[in-house]
């Protein structure tokens, strides 16, 4: 029964991972005319939201690799890196606040939810329970996707910043 449950979770993770890859591949190359990408250009500064998100994406990829090869230590390390991700620079934070307005508090809550989910993945991986860790990873992915669906467009296509 445990093997069957594990296979089902792995299959769901594969489908979910493919969906995330498709979403990531659909990224628009240029912002709308007269708009600025809030996170900066393709050569963003280290404290930019775009660079932080790219780093989080690499850690999510590392977790997926860890699952495929059965290396829960690398899953744990990647999850801890996500939980401890760098903070955005103060100027970047101001741009995010400008773009999101009153929704900024929700963005902060979403970041906290991702942080907490990453810590649960790390704790589960440290326990050595692959099935539980996959379940927690699914929750982490869901938190990430929820945040992206709620805030990504406004941050990519937010108002032109006069700073």
Low-pLDDT segments, ≥5 res: 18-44
How much is the average pLDDT? 80
Rg value: 17 Å
Secondary-structure element pattern, one letter each:
HHHHHH
The number of E-state strands comes to 0
Describe the structure.
About 17% of the residues have low confidence. This protein is mainly α. The chain is built from six helices and no strands. It starts with a helix and ends in a 7-residue tail after the last helix. It has a single domain, classed as Cytochrome c/b562 (Four Helix Bundle (Hemerythrin (Met), subunit A), Up-down Bundle), CATH 1.20.120.10. 73% of the residues lie in helices and 0% in strands. Helix 2 packs antiparallel against helix 3.
Write the SSE topology.
Elements: H1 2-25, H2 49-69, H3 72-83, H4 90-100, H5 104-127, H6 130-156
Give the key terms.
163 residues, Four Helix Bundle (Hemerythrin (Met), subunit A), 6 helices, elongated
Q: What's this entry about, in short?
A:
The chain is elongated and about 50 Å long. Mean pLDDT is 80; it is low at 18-44.
């Amino acid at each position: 029964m445990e093997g069957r449950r594990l296979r089902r979770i792995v299959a769901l993770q594969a489908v979910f991972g493919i969906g995330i890859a498709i979403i990531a591949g659909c990224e628009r190359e240029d912002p709308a005319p007269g708009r600025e990408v809030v996170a900066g250009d393709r050569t963003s500064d280290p404290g930019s939201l775009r660079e932080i998100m790219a780093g989080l994406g690499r850690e999510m990829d590392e977790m997926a690799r860890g699952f495929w090869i059965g290396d829960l230590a690398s899953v744990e390390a990647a999850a801890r890196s996500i939980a401890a991700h760098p903070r955005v620079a103060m100027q970047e934070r101001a741009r995010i606040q400008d773009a999101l307005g009153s929704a900024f508090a929700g963005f902060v809550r979403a970041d906290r939810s991702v942080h907490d989910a990453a810590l649960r993945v790390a704790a589960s991986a440290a326990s050595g329970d692959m099935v539980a860790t996959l379940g927690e990873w699914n929750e982490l992915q869901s938190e990430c996707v929820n945040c992206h669906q709620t805030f990504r467009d406004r941050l990519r296509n937010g108002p032109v910043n006069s700073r």
